[in-house]
Design goal:
Helix 16 runs antiparallel to helix 17 and helix 19 packs parallel to helix 21. Helices cover 48% and strands 17% of the residues. The protein has a five-stranded antiparallel beta sheet with strand order 7-8-9-10-11. The chain has a three-stranded antiparallel beta sheet with strand order 6-2-12. A three-stranded antiparallel beta sheet has the order 3-5-4. By secondary structure, the chain is an alpha+beta fold. The longest helix is centred in the last third of the chain and has 50 residues.
Length: 716
């Protein structure tokens, strides 16, 4: 095993070389982007001149956020699961419901995605931490006037620890105040400790995340670190030794990078004196995930090393883990690099130039309204001239036209306005955020519908691309990690309320039987288009139901209509279809049995016609059957006469023929068809042919007195 000293040496080297550490290029880049988003001074301001700042980065980011959040969180299902086989469909549906329950109910999924998306749009990458939290939660509870039984039941719970207890006796009296007995009562203060095992989703500020510089993604990286602060009290609650925690140095100078100072501007980060309550003092914590040959067997394992102090000076814990608990997303992917490009980077130069042009335009307007004046020295009162007020008087010793001359300024408003419009068009081309898509263009009605649709389509394509990148990277990885953690650590059944029903969830049965997919909607404009299309589809479905005169027809059924209504509700931004429409299967089970609907006049006439046709067909069939039976009886009678003639001729009883004749009669009674008669006729012909052959043989080879009496071998 590697010693703590060797492990700390490796960690220190990886931390200082990681992307995102103090003083790196990435930190400066994120600091600049955050300053542009916040509209902070550009650094080229001049005293006495305009210092206005254009908020293009802010406008672009905030215009993208509503569409992105609506795409992912407008409906109830951010994640969906698919079963491996047809038998897994029900399990996959439960898995989808449970993952969305964990995302929305157990965690504030909306705010987690919001924070990650905004970090990605401003500072290149949005980071989410996904892990299984099994830490104990301790709650203080106070009880008074408990009886002995109540007190004993309370403290018998292994989760309960008594911190304060007082016992006293109280008399029991009758109506006259006479003491009958005494009862022992208890006042107690307890601390109840519970284990809440669940999936936790937390957004990680970009300045707290470190990764190896040459990493392409998190899963293939050799080093990932979450740099944060914890109070000494929190560390002890997490299970670390109190003596070790008490000896850790307080202070977090390595934690406050340049971008963190910008994010928390005007915030006092002092943590009090060391002479105060040490339990509330912060300790710098490095939660490192590194591939290292910890046991020196020649194979690098993924281990989690928790270290504390400046530059990770003290190891608190070492644990071997299966995967990294982080997911990342970036709006503009740079192939083969972890850090992509932010939307802020695409707009920062536009904001700088627009701010410069706006400042020049405003300064020009100031000069135009307040012209400089050339005066003859000593002939004009300078105090009067510098006091610029309406109705003010400027005293001169000579006629004003002789000693004063205004110096006109050249207006640049027209040129500056054209420049600003051009810069806006460049910004729209880069980001896809147009005035039309924001509803800010007053001239929209004066433009053709085709042109407007093209502009909106292009804008939607850019937003949809960003949404698809977020879905295929961060959101998809988030779903997979939630699924893996739930299947691995939740080994007990949990009952949750989903769509108004309490359903038992058994994630330990889902592993290797369910595939995870992420369903992503479309942008705002596309959702509106989908609403139009879905309404048109719903109208056609109702027309088809009218044509087939039944809701269970061959073209459309109630399930098809229900699916259309469900998509309409989702695209409208409403949460769930249950308050508006009931599932047809559930509704059918709850409906009372109604008496059959009386037939209409048309149905009565139709039924009469059908009954008449059936009666005529039955009479015709009976007539044909009687004819066949008559012919069959006549043929059987002829057949019996022929058999009698043969018996008289040969002087013997043909038992076998009698059995076969009876078999023929039984078959005739069962089938009563003309096909059977064909078989009977065929058997008769074969029988008489065989009899004639035997008769000829007997005449040629034997005398009349020695005739061989054997039954025929022909089967009828």
């Amino acid at each position: 095993m590697k010693s703590d000293k060797d492990i700390l040496a490796v960690l220190s080297r990886e931390i200082h070389n990681a992307s995102g550490f103090i003083g790196g290029e990435l930190v400066a880049r994120r600091k600049k982007s955050l300053e542009y988003y916040l509209g902070m001074p550009l650094g080229n301001e001049q005293e006495g001149r305009s210092q206005v700042i254009s908020n293009d980065v802010l406008d672009t980011v905030e215009s993208l956020m509503p569409s992105l959040m609506r795409i992912f969180t407008a409906g109830d299902n951010v994640f969906s699961c698919e079963g491996v086989g047809p038998e897994d469909d029900e399990m996959a549906r439960q898995c989808s419901d449970y993952l969305n329950h964990i995302f929305y109910k157990d965690n504030n999924g909306f705010l987690a995605l919001y924070s990650a998306f905004k970090d990605a749009l401003i500072q290149k990458n949005g980071i989410l931490k996904v892990y299984w939290d099994d830490s104990a939660k301790t709650e203080r509870e106070e009880y008074t006037r408990l009886t002995d039984d109540e007190f004993n039941d309370l403290v018998a719970n292994p989760e309960v620890k008594v911190s304060n207890h007082s016992e006293y006796e109280e008399p029991i009296t009758d109506d006259q105040g006479k003491e009958l007995d005494k009862v022992t009562l208890h006042d107690v203060v307890i601390h109840r400790t519970k284990l809440y095992g669940q999936v936790k989703i937390e957004p990680v500020p970009p300045e707290e995340f470190l990764i190896a510089r040459r990493s392409r993604d998190i899963n293939s990286s050799n080093f990932v670190c979450h740099r944060t602060t914890k109070s000494k009290s929190e560390l002890i609650e997490m299970g670390y030794d109190a003596d070790v925690v008490d000896g850790l140095p307080s202070g977090d100078t390595d934690f406050f990078t340049e971008d963190k100072f910008v994010r928390h501007q005007n915030v006092d980060f002092s943590h009090g004196s060391t002479e105060g309550d040490k339990s509330t003092m912060d300790v710098l914590i490095y939660e490192c995930y590194i591939k290292m040959d910890i046991n020196e067997d020649g194979i690098a394992e993924l281990v989690k090393v928790t270290a504390a102090g400046t530059a990770a000076g003290k190891i608190l814990d070492i644990t071997e883990v299966d995967s990294f608990p982080f997911v990342s997303m970036t709006p503009v992917i740079m192939p083969h690099r972890f850090h992509g490009r932010s939307i802020s980077e695409l707009v920062e130069d536009i904001q700088l130039i627009k701010s410069t042009v706006m400042r020049q335009m405003l300064d020009n307007m100031y000069l135009t309204n307040n012209n400089r004046v050339a005066v003859q020295d000593g002939q004009v009162s300078m105090d009067d001239l510098l006091t610029n007020r309406p109705g003010g008087i400027v005293r001169t010793k000579q006629p004003p036209q002789n000693v004063m001359m205004p110096i006109p300024a050249q207006p640049i408003t027209e040129q500056a306005s054209g420049m600003l419009a051009y810069l806006d068009s460049v910004k729209e081309t880069r980001t896809g955020i147009t005035r039309q898509s924001q509803g800010l263009d007053a001239n929209t009605l004066n433009k053709t519908a085709t042109g407007q649709n093209q502009i909106l389509t292009q804008s939607q394509m850019r937003m949809e691309l960003i949404a698809r990148i977020f879905a295929e990277t961060g959101v998809k990885d988030l779903a997979l990690k939630m699924f893996e953690l739930t299947c691995k650590y939740q080994n007990k059944e949990k009952i949750v309320r989903i769509r108004g029903k309490y359903i038992p969830m058994r994630p330990y049965e889902w592993k290797d039987r369910v595939n995870i997919t992420v369903q992503v909607g479309l942008g705002t404009g596309s959702k509106e288009q989908q609403l139009i299309l879905l309404n048109a589809i719903l109208e056609r479905q109702m027309q088809a139901i009218n044509l087939q005169q039944n809701v269970h027809g061959p073209m459309v059924n109630l399930r098809n209509v229900y699916n259309s209504l469900k998509k309409l509700i989702e695209n409208a931004g409403l949460n769930g279809i249950e308050p508006y429409f009931m599932d047809p299967e559930v509704g059918a089970a709850q409906m009372p049995q109604l008496p059959p609907k009386p037939p209409t006049e048309f149905e009565k006439v139709t039924m009469a016609q059908v009954q008449g046709e059936n009666q005529r067909a039955t009479l015709q069939a009976n007539t044909r059957l009687k004819e066949v039976e008559g012919r069959m009886r006549q043929q059987l009678l002829d057949f019996e006469i022929q058999i009698k003639e043969l018996e008289l001729k040969y002087g013997t009883k043909i038992d076998e023929l009698e059995l076969k004749r009876r078999s023929m009669l039984e078959q005739a009674d069962l089938n009563k068809s003309g096909d059977l008669m064909k078989e009977i006729v065929k058997g008769q012909q074969q029988f008489f042919n065989d009899g004639q052959a035997r008769d000829a043989t007997a005449k040629g080879k034997e005398s009349p007195g020695s005739i061989r009496r054997s039954p025929p071998k022909t089967s009828i």
